[in-house]
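Lab meeting, item 3. Inverse folding demo.
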C-alpha cells in the first residue's frame, strides 16, 4: 500500500483536499511513464491524477524517544477492552503497543 499527501488541487477541489492523505492503487507502466498516479479521492472512487498534485508519504515508523506520535481516542466495549488487555499481558506488551502493532500490520505501514 502507498499513501500520498495532496499538495495542490487546482481543477479538482471537489475530489481532492490540499493537505489530505490519500491511498493509491497500482498503475500501469504507461500511466506511470505519463506521470500519473491512481488515487482514491474524496468520493471513494479511484481516478488518475498528475503526480505533481501529490507528495509521497514517508511511512518510517519509529518508537524512539521524542518521536512524533499523536493520540487517538476510540470507543470499545468493556469486553473488548478486557480481551485486549489479556492479549497484551500474554504478549508482554502494553495495550497501546499491541494496538499500534495491529494497526501498523493492517495498514502495512512498515513495508513502505
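The presenter then showed the designed sequence:
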Amino acid at each position: 500500500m502507498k499513501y500520498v499527501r495532496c499538495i495542490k488541487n487546482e481543477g479538482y477541489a471537489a475530489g481532492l483536499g490540499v493537505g489530505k492523505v490519500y491511498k493509491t492503487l497500482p498503475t500501469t507502466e504507461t500511466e506511470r511513464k505519463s506521470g500519473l498516479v491512481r488515487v482514491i479521492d474524496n468520493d471513494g472512487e479511484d481516478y488518475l491524477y498528475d503526480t505533481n498534485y501529490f507528495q509521497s508519504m514517508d511511512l518510517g515508523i519509529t518508537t524512539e524517544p521524542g518521536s512524533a506520535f499523536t493520540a487517538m481516542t476510540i470507543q470499545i466495549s468493556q469486553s473488548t477492552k478486557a480481551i485486549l488487555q489479556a492479549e497484551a499481558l500474554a504478549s508482554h506488551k502494553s495495550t497501546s503497543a499491541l494496538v499500534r502493532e495491529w494497526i501498523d500490520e493492517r495498514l502495512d505501514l512498515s513495508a513502505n
